[in-house]
Write a structure and sequence with these properties.
This is PEP-utilising enzyme, mobile domain. GO terms for molecular function: transferase activity, transferring phosphorus-containing groups. It comes from Haloechinothrix alba. With about 60 residues, this protein is of the alpha+beta class. It has one domain. It has 2 helices and 4 strands. The protein has helices at about 20-25, 35-40, and strands at about 10, 30, 45-50, 55-60. The chain has a two-stranded parallel sheet with strand order 1-2. The chain has a two-stranded antiparallel sheet with strand order 3-4. Strand 3 and strand 4 (about 55-60) form a beta hairpin. The longest helix is centred in the middle third of the chain and has 9 residues, at about 20-25. It is globular, with a radius of gyration of 11 Å. The model has no long low-confidence stretch (mean pLDDT about 90).
Length: about 60
């Protein structure tokens, strides 16, 4: 699934976790430690992910 994603949002992890390494290799943004991401973001939601600022914004619900 990571190869199909435009960005990664992960509930729990650190700077050396698998998701971060894969995001770097795929040149896609990644935000770690959002804690509530799997409860807030749903399949089909349109989101803005800013890896530099560490923010995830749901623009449009599914």
């Amino acid at each position: 699934m990571m190869f199909l994603a435009d960005a990664l949002v992960v509930d729990i992890g650190c700077l050396l976790s698998h998701a971060v390494v894969m995001a770097r290799e795929l040149s896609i943004p990644c935000v770690m430690n959002v804690r509530e991401g799997t409860r807030t973001v749903r399949t089909g939601d349109v989101c803005r992910v800013d890896g530099s600022a560490g923010t995830v914004e749901v623009l449009e619900g599914a």
